[in-house]
Write a structure and sequence with these properties.
By secondary structure, the protein is α/β, with parallel strands linked by helices. It has a single domain (3-185), classed as 5'-nuclease (Rossmann fold, 3-Layer(aba) Sandwich), CATH 3.40.50. It is 51% helix and 8% strand. It is built from ten helices and four strands. It is globular, with a radius of gyration of 21 Å.
């Protein structure tokens, strides 16, 4: 076997994701996504939050990711946001501890992110073939390279899984009357 064939085989073997038992939806969440979930209460994160709370997805993380979150929660603008919402950093870390399944540090992925702080998220997603949720521009520009490694970047989270209490339905006649009245006002 020639040198190129040998290294091509080794490279493809290093990109093959490790299967995750018992879960069809495995995700890696970068720190900004975690902040959206529990600090900023971003409405776009509600479906993902609902999936996490129901256990429909497996969120993979590492100790280094938790350490980064701990550090970011002390940034002045984040601390102000926590205070404005009446939250403590420990509560956010509690969500991390409750939902994230801590994995060993992943080996370096075949592709390198320009932002070294984001590399750990990429490495873990590649190792497990997990979907990666990130808003970081340095990660977003890697979408095609990550796809070659079996990583889907920011896959849509179906809104149908977002289970919120449904409002009490009005009687059809009442509802029609309200629609007619609203239409006449316009």
């Amino acid at each position: 076997m020639g040198w190129h064939a040998l290294h091509a085989e080794q490279a493809s073997a290093s990109v093959r994701p490790e299967p995750v038992e018992g879960h069809s939806t495995v995700r890696v969440l970068d720190t900004n996504i975690v902040l959206d979930l529990w600090v900023f209460d971003d409405p776009r994160s509600k479906p993902l939050l609902a999936q996490l709370e129901r256990g429909d997805v497996r969120w993979l993380a590492t100790v280094a990711m938790r350490e980064e979150l701990t550090r970011v929660l002390t940034y002045p603008h984040i601390a102000r946001r926590l205070q404005a919402r009446g939250l403590q950093a420990d509560a956010v870390l509690g969500h991390f501890d409750r939902h994230a399944q801590v994995q060993p540090e992943a080996p370096k992925a075949p592709y390198t992110c320009k932002d070294p702080d984001d590399q750990k998220f990429i490495d873990l997603a590649v190792q497990h073939g997990a979907a990666l949720h990130s808003k970081d521009a340095q990660v977003l520009c890697m979408k095609n390279r990550l796809a070659r490694c079996g990583v889907v970047l920011n896959p849509p989270v179906p809104w149908t899984v977002w289970t919120t209490p449904t409002p009490v339905q009005a009687e059809p006649a009442t509802f029609r009357a309200e629609l007619v009245a609203a239409h006449q006002e316009n």
